Amino acid sequence: MKLSKWALALGIFTSVALLAGCGSGSSNSSDGVTTVKVAWRATGKGDSMYRIYSKKWIADFEKKNPKIKISLQPINASEGDYFSKLDLAMKSADTTPDIVNEDTFILPADAKAGYLEPLDSYVAKWSDWDKFTAALKKGSQGSDGKQYGIPGTTDARGIWTDLVVTKKAGLAADWAPKSWADILTAAKKIKQTQPNVIPFAMGVSTTNGESVSMQTFEQLLYGTGETLYNEKTKKWNVNSKGILATLNFINQIYNKDKTGPSLSVVMSSNYGSTIFQDRIPKNQVGMAMDGIWNTGNWSKDGAAPIANMTKVLAFNLMPTEKGQKPGYVTMAGGWSWALPKNSKNKKAAWTVMKAMNTKQLAVTRALQEGTLTVRDDAAKDPEYLKKPFIKEATQALQNAHFRPKNDLYPKVSIAIQQMVESVAAGRKSPSDAAAKYATDVKGIVGDSNTDTQK
Amino acid sequence: MDASNVIKNKPHKTQQQKTERRLSVWLMLPSMILLLIFFLTPMILTVVFSLTNLSLTGEAASSLHFIGFQNYLQMFKDPALATSIWNTIVFVLFSAVIGQCFFGFLIAFMMRGKNKTFRRIIGLIIIAAWVTPEVVVGFCWVAFLGDNGTLNMLAHNLLGMKPVAWLYTFPMVSIIIANVWRGTAFSMMVFQTALDDIPQEVEEAAVMDGATRWQLVTRITIPMVKGTIATNIMLVTLQTLGVFSLIYTMTGGGPENATSTLPVFMYKQAFVSYQLGYGTAISLVLLLIGALASLLYMKILKVKI
């Protein structure tokens, strides 16, 4: 009997302890101090965000705001995984960060999911808000027209060209492609003269996520004069000539001319760091289609510094397919800061948010990351104007296209990545891949919401 | 023990039994609660969520509702499902049933009656592969099969071959070999114990009767460990059905869908395409295949487990 009583006590105790262990006791402002958790996607060693929001900056802020503590909580994940990790965290009030860095392509979807707090009433009382570039403010709105994000950076894309390589290949010092054919010819010349150099690199693997859709596929497609989505008719473009031309170009590089990187390089999730932090600094890549922010990698305190960056490399604008007007295009995107709806510390988070987006920090961020600024006043800053390749990037932005502001875009983007990968890996012909894409998109958006652009 | 004693003891025994039963219920309570919370609830939730539009982002994430069997309909219309099921079958058949079981048995058989030190050293090396986490094994094989990896170096230096992108030219073969390399130790250990339990007299008697070595193995040794073989095949099959990190680190399911097994397909739908509801529906198909495979083995090998 005695034993049974003990067992009873033990049983109840363990059960209660178990149940108690399941609930989380996360209470924040117990001593009047609120901790604001800031989440972003960190990219390995020397992530620039630590230099922008440095220990000193945090200490200064906390001295001025003794009731607020800032906790930087980087999410170390591949580009594809970051968004699902962030979404999972934002789903619950127990796990959500208080400030999150959102890529503008997924912002409308996350806003529609109800994860984000509309910021209209916040920005109305913020004097700095007028200083932000109007077009970019629009890029951080949801499909309901409300403001869900404060723009942090924007960017432009082009063709990084290694002048050492092009010189050896016999191209002129001021060589700049005027059409896709120019790129193919140059790539072949590089291949003939320098077998150990990757003539032309562009991301094509699904493991590289959104960048494949935007920087490879859309960057090319918009150069054919077509778009992914017609904002007026609200229809998605499938089975079009432009899509086929784009896939043919990818097929030409990877399978016919074999002027792309080897499959082991390009299919790996490390594609970006291999090309931009390893091979380009060694002059082993002729041309690489990518964003202006790579200057951040190559600057003095970047991951792979290149001395005399502006002498060794050129940032060529991406030509249109046949050189048709306006001659060149770029896709532009960027990242915005947003407040999760589930956060219990929105007031404190907004105070931190304002401090994170001052003019001075906007300049610092653009310089550290190599991205373009989102504030008109920062764009006039003399320090900012000294940034490498700033002239080319600003010029590129004149013909910038933005991704569809549609909450289904992230899902369509996955279909794009699969289409591009299947062609580059030589598993599908361009026309088969385009047909598969049409079926996939119809499945995502519905038959009646697709169209063929001419 | 005489009869009177038994009768005298009886009521006392039931009393004690009652107490013991009560005691056991209380002692089992914590584990029952654990099972309920961490096993049964997720299982039920999985079935429930597979009937919803549960999503990570977009409009569906804000309005969770039942959509009936739409996820299942979508799945059976998707050609990627057929590819994934086929890949899963190939992967399990070659890496678990054929690879791990066969090599596991072979190694265990060859190590029988060998020097103890020799057995220990060899066993340790093989088990090292098994205790290494899947992700680490994945990275080791990526390095081994890479453009500048050991295999290409050997092929270049010995045979003068040009480097081959093994992982992308022979994706399925690569992950199968990696999984065999990793998993053989488990089968080896299981078979070692079973083989050690065979009484030596039986085999000696067979040899006396003039059995050849081949006959000895096929007629005596294997039939005597049949039960172990069945258990092992089943365990290894179920383990291999769930292999995810190894494949994901090595090929990410690619190129295209060449190595996309059901777990990879499920992950991609749930966390890359943000369709959690659809992902859970796929996971139930995986469960079904596991159950079917187990039943099949029990039928074929005519053993009870």
From TrEMBL, chain B:
GO terms classed as biological process = transmembrane transport
Q: Which domain of life is it from?
A: Bacteria
| Main location as per UniProt | membrane
Q: Where is the ABC transmembrane type-1 domain?
A: 85-297
Q: Does the keyword Membrane apply?
A: yes
Q: Name one Pfam family in it.
A: BPD_transp_1
Keyword field contains Membrane? yes
Which residue ranges run through the membrane?
A: 23-49, 85-109, 121-144, 164-181, 229-251, 271-297
Q: Which controlled-vocabulary keywords does the entry list?
A: Cell membrane, Membrane, Transmembrane, Transmembrane helix, Transport
Location relative to the cell: Cell membrane
GO CC field: plasma membrane
The name this protein carries in UniProt is ABC transmembrane type-1 domain-containing protein
Q: What lineage is this protein's organism placed in?
A: Bacteria, Bacillati, Bacillota, Bacilli, Lactobacillales
